[in-house]
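Two quick folds needed for the group meeting slides. Do the first one here.
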Amino acid sequence: MQKEKFYITTAIAYASQKPHIGNTYEVILTDAIARFKKMAGYDVFFLTGTDEHGQKIEEYAKKSGVSPKEYVDKVSGEIKRIWKLVGADFDKFIRTTDDYHEKAVANIFKKLYDTGDIYKSEYEGLYCVPCESFFTETQAPDGICPDCGRPLKKTKEETYFFRMSKYQDRLMKYIEEHPDFIVPESRKKEMINNFLKPGLQDLCVSRSSFKWGIPVSFDDKHVIYVWIDALSNYITALGYDVDEQGELYKKYWPADVHIIGKDILRFHTIYWPIILMALGQPLPKQVFGHPWLNFGADKMSKSKGNVLYADDLVNIFGVDGIRYYVLSEMPYANDGSITYETIIEKYNTDLANNLGNLVSRTIAMTQKYFDGVVPEQGEKTQEDRNLAETAENAFNKMFEKMTEYRCSEALDEIFKLFKRANKYIDETTPWILAKGEKTFSRLGSVIYNLLEAIRFGAVMLKPFIPKTAEKILRALNTGKVEFETLSCFGQLEKGITVNKTESLFARLDGEKLLKELKKEQNAEREEKEKGISNAEKETKNASEKAEDTGIAKIGIDDFMKIDLRTALIYDCEPVPKADKLLKIQVDLGYEKRQIVSGIAKFYKPEELIGKKIIIVSNLAPAKLRGVDSNGMLLASGEEDVKVVFLSDDTPLGQRVR
């Protein structure tokens, strides 16, 4: 019987610089989903790759003294190496400098021009080089990029535009009729409320101010801009061209899911579907906008010096140590966090203790008491039935979670089984059972149940930490290694001989490791400080003098750490036994949360309900008089506090700058 197909993609990584662990998380997540689907019986095609054109790359190449092609060859090779390093088992790695892709993109552009969906005009406005995005004065009144916070450049140039507005109503209808097209739900609301409802503007799809791109076939002054070039990779990789569709395209398109970061959701849920509509091609079934992996509470940034790289982390914690951390730590909809301290804690607790210790103890007891031979399973006790039920439930819940791409929740279910198995050892005390002839048969049942619980867990771990899962299954010497063998507890073959196993995860000396890492970081910092120019030192001194005047000066990077968002107050009440505090419920459009504010002396709850305000959304959670607070509202004054209210038509969840 023919398998059902499943086509999954990552966003293609921009080949400007080496990706950090936050970028690498996406390919690890996608790989785990692809492996899960293969084990679930699907015919999977997993695509990833690199986006290699644009002004930013042209500038990087110039600074490096090489051609743009030489530059992207090096960076793309580095990205592919890192993807392989973290265990990504992709089926194809596309580069947008591949000949077949460039040919197909040129033909796509020409077709859209011939049908009237692309037209020539002139652009005058603001442009962000890092984001490669254009903005109107209305979208960026302060001259700062709404996406990355960097200064925008005023630009005027001849360009081709794509008629986005023509397809707005059709896209809105499609999203309404396909409620699972954009997930999580909060991301869908953001796209509808912030971009579609206010109205779409036609999109700039060519550039004439730089040359590193795919030329417009009928106008050599222009190169095709990123949207049509990069987004089209999902179909050109399968052999799509305007006059022919390859066998892979016929088999796998439409994509079952695009796995992308939440910051590029607009391009994949608005621009890309409309391009496909204009081409007369089916839309992808789903776009999953995953959250960010932050360093602590901050977004990773080279300028902040808080960037972690996958290869450095793998050298310390191993491939599966890092895969497990990022997959288990990243929530479904909210941002995750990574620091050396949290990696060490999770590594020791989950991998070294709950998993590694369980496997080594059980294999050792099997060898000690039964010469390594898997014993018979005897009469079942309540503890046995409870362990079996936990194993079967873990598989069912893990499977359910993974169909929705809730990887961290799926791993939680697996590790509940390992915790239960460890508790089972304490309940049954096999070392005591081994001392009596009458209890020896009971010991056999206990060891069998532990080995079977470990097999269940190892099979379930294969999509997430495949190398470790294979080590465990080799130690068990079992042929029962697929999902179908987890339908019921008790399928481990009796009479087989287990193998000796190496330590899966040796416990880390966290204090020692952190000292070593701090020493390395200090050495790197000293090297950087040695390279500071006199001009930079003078700037630093001037800044310090400014602080002496009473007002500390901060740079743009420090300011951009503050995430200000528009929100609606939909409920408000006093905090009991706190004269100054109000408990305020706010709606950001994409999520609801509670904040506590000391404004009770200046406002009654009924005066605030229904008002739109600005909140600091990335403030660390706190408890005020025992009440949780997840943010802070903006207000002025000390003696006479005035909350900053917004007009009623202000969209929710917008970033304020």
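Then this one, please, same format:
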Amino acid sequence: MTKRFGVMLDCSRNAVMKPEKVKEYADLLLKMGYNMLMLYTEDTYEIEGEPYFGYLRGRYTKEELRSISEYCHSIGIEVIPAIQTLGHLNSIFRWGPYRQICDMEPVLLTEDERTYALIRRMFAACREAYPRATVINIGMDEAYGLGLGAYLKKNGYVPAHEILLRHLGRVIEIAKEFDFEPIMWSDMFFHLEHGQYEALNTPEEVKLSDEVIALCPKGVSQVFWRYHSTNGDGYRNMLREHKRFGGESWFAGCAWTWNSMAVSNQATLECTLPAMDACAEENTENIVMTMWGDDGKNCSFFSMLPSLFAVRRWHQGVKDMEQIKKEFEQIIGERFDDMMLLDLPGDYGNTRPYDNTYHKYMLFSDPFCGFLDSLAQPHAKENYVAHAPRLQALADKGGAYAYLYQNMANLCRVMAVKYDLGVRTRAAYEKKDIVQLTALVADYRATGDAVEAFADSMRDVWYLENRPHGFEVQEHRLGGLAYHLRSLAGRLEQFARGEVASIPELEEEILPYWVTRPAPLKEGEVLPSVQFWRDMITVNRT
């Protein structure tokens, strides 16, 4: 029988959720049948004697975390700290005191006593901040390049699995000093042996050597995470393989909140319901739904309530979606199908269930350079035109989550004009259609205004739920986009008036992006996923 069923809130990707909002989320989790909350903090927690750790990043104080922990305990929610003791520590290496313990970003320099002094202070801070916690997540995931930076210069080449195992042994010892039971993400063991992790499915693919299993230190439980798959057999095979490590069994699934500008509850269900069936069959003891904020934490965690509720009820054996929807409205006070409409900006047929960034890269793509315009799909613009009033109607109804509908309505209004702006501009330029190019100037300016309206509503969401730290990233991105669109409008006007002879970017041929021929895609093909803002805005160096 499952011991823990929880949610992990990423409070490290710029957005640090306000303590009162964490407590509000804990109240909702309790109503939905959850009993655990994991707070993921890479450097966003206070460590005594480490002023640069989480500096200007909205870090939690020990008192705030203790208050969250005590409140959750009072209502029956266990709080588990999730930190990093090897990789994912990019943010600290910009500061001088930590550069000397950097192997290569984002990985700590192992087998250096200064590193273990810092890790010991991490655990001391967590023990003070989470006095009731028995379990701690020590991270250890995705530490690619381990031993190939400063470690290599200092020690020569040592196989990465040896470095990992020695380091893990030291961290387990420190965890025990502070009376913590450590758990860790399991991917590095599979990555070092198979060169991959999430694509492993068959019994032969997932199998680890007896040597690796034997060498893995005892006293740490492995968390199997998988976010992208709908393959139930793959989940089962990996869960079985993880049992060979010993310790408690853990599974981490996905609630899709990262990289995109909009959540995907539907992708969450498509990927996670098969996992819940596998976990039930394999008697997985602990389950956590992760909500990451990669690439700036664009989405509200409150947008995921329908899929989180459905996943929990599914695991409890309720597989009638109509019953689930009815219960959701009774418990949360919002119609299930209404909240699922928060997916609309990222909902498009030619994507894998978990790749819903196409709207984001068409939002930020440069209309003149147009290197992503080969991915523009028929009818997408019309979809946004239709989506905006549906979402606006829900916002106008009011209620606890009206601000989320408003934000997504504003995003759809941007995309209703911006989506094919580059395609239309290039087509008119190639024909030297001055009338059409002059008309497009108004679209550029209107899109700039719409981007600013979207930024305003996104700020409303952010400031309601999170500390202000980190929103400057969103303002630089969206503000830069609005400014750039108006700048391009001015250049179009100059060309239309004959003040400049050409627009050099529009003279260049647009080559296919990741595909061997231009859009539209054939049936069964999928759009490529461009995950990060930096890869969407330009092919030039940022």
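Slide caption for protein two: The chain has a mean pLDDT of 95.
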